[in-house]
Amino acid sequence: MIDVKDIEAAYSCIRDVVTQTPLMKDEILSEKYAANIYLKREDLQVVRSYKIRGAYNKMASLSQEERKRGIVCASAGNHAQGVAFSCLKLNIQGRIFMPATTPKQKIKQVRMFGRDNVEIILTGDTYDQAYEAAKKDCATNKSVFIHPFDDLQVAAGQGTVGLEIMQQVDFSIDYALVPIGGGGLISGLGSWLRVKSPATRIIGVEPAGAAAMKESLDQGKRVILENFEKFVDGAAVSLVGELNFEIAREVIDGMILVPEGKVCTTILRLYNEEAIVAEPAGALSIAALDLMADKIKGKNVVCIVSGGNNDITRTEEIKERSLLYEGLKHYLIIRFPQRSGALREFVNEVLGPDDDITHFEYTKKNSRDSGPALVGIETRSMADYQAMLQRMEDKHINYKSVNDSPDLFHLLI
After folding, report:
1. Which of 78, 131, 206, 264 is deepest in the core (most CB within 10 A)?
2. Residue 168: what are its φ and ψ, rounded to 5°?
3. Closest CA to 330 of 264, 394, 413
4. What CA–CA distance (Å, rounded) separates 157 from 151?
5. How far is the CA of 180 from the CAs of 54, 237, 240, 309, in angstroms?
6. What single string gives the DSSP state of each residue in 307-341?
7. Cβ contact 63:153 at 8 Å
8. 126: phi then psi, degrees, rounded to nearest 5
9. Residue 272 phi, psi (nearest 5)
């Protein structure tokens, strides 16, 4: 584990630069789960994520000779912003490699935080390609590479989240729910809590489609995910850090995998009910509460809201994923009879009063008895959907659910 003295030293280094984010009791969640739910609001951090802690601690430790050589990093989001902010504060020149597919909003944020101290290089289509380009550039120019998680000083900086939490509580913490990507946060925070609050059960939370840490823990070695879901971009990696994995084996008491659709439902609920803007990775720990509801009754629970850099252009996708997960949005391939009035009959006699067609693609082919249409239908409840399916069965309508066929769904939707 990381020595608590290293985390204390990191805190002394960064305390005048970062925000001591609040630990807030969430009354709505506390009532819902009959527990005391506290949110560590790293979404309110100076760069809207905890990543600044590790990046600044690492960069501040560089020698004058290393600073003159400059730094290099690869990131598509929060790490890049933390590094850029640190470059400006420490007057270090940095080269930040980002995938060419990075949204303009994120590029603009990095440039805003780093100003003239950073050069942004857009390369490749994925983070892995940007990472390889950054490492090559680093070797060529003898620069210092700032890893997003697999580094002792970076992880020690992230561990200051745990130090702050212990400063802010006057009660024992029963559970700490911590989002996991590469493992920097849980290795740092976990090292602190394991020593300073040994009774606390540390639960790692990953997106179900990118469970690199869970797979690695299950197999007893680091596992590379060949294919993984990238939606929860702040916590979706193909391989966890080597240092982080070894520490995780010591500090993690349990793992929870949260479906990406549930993360989306949580993002929308936090925004609509509590005006909290959480990015997908930031909502992970709160989304996990439902999956621990029986265990946490009457307990003190801390959820790390790791970031709030949510791109507004993703709102429609978030809504769509939430509706699909909740069983309120359905895509069907329906073979309508090739006769006039068939569609009108479907609308009038099959759809319920609260059902809504949100998507319709149909090409009439006169040479066939029936023509396939891709239809998206939004319902008020799962019961409404089941009732609609029953009416389709009664009328002998030929249909296939695309939701139940992942490959077909991604091809068509």
Report:
1. 78
2. -95, -10
3. 413
4. 10
5. 15, 9, 9, 17
6. B----GGGHHHHHHHHHHHTT-EEEEEEEEESSTT
7. no
8. -130, 165
9. -75, -35
Q: Which amino acid is at 325?
A: Y
* DSSP structure class, residue 8: H
Determine how many CB atoms are found less than 10 A away from the CB of residue 39: 25
CB burial class (10 A; 0-12, 13-18, 19+) of residue 225? Answer: middle
> Exposure of 163 by Cβ count < 10 A (0-12 exposed, 13-18 middle, 19+ buried)?
buried
pLDDT tens per residue, range 169-222: 999 999 999 999 999 999 999 999 999 999 999 999 999 999 999 999 999 999
Of 309, 271, 252, 315, the residue nearest 78 (C-alpha): 309
Total residue count of the chain as it appears in this document:
413
**DSSP secondary structure, 179-218, as one string:** E-SSSHHHHHHHHHHHHH-TTSEEEEEEEGGG-HHHHHHH
The contacts of residue 41 (CB under 8 Å, 6+ apart) are 21, 22, 23, 24, 305
Tokens at residue 55, please? Answer: 């990046």
- Pair of tokens at residue 272: 């609509």
Main-chain dihedrals φ then ψ at residue 397, nearest 5 degrees: -85, 130
Return d(Cα 297, Cα 300) in angstroms, integer. 9
pLDDT tens digits, one per residue of 344-373: 999 999 999 999 999 999 866 655 566 789
Cβ atoms of residues 154 and 57 within 8 Å: yes
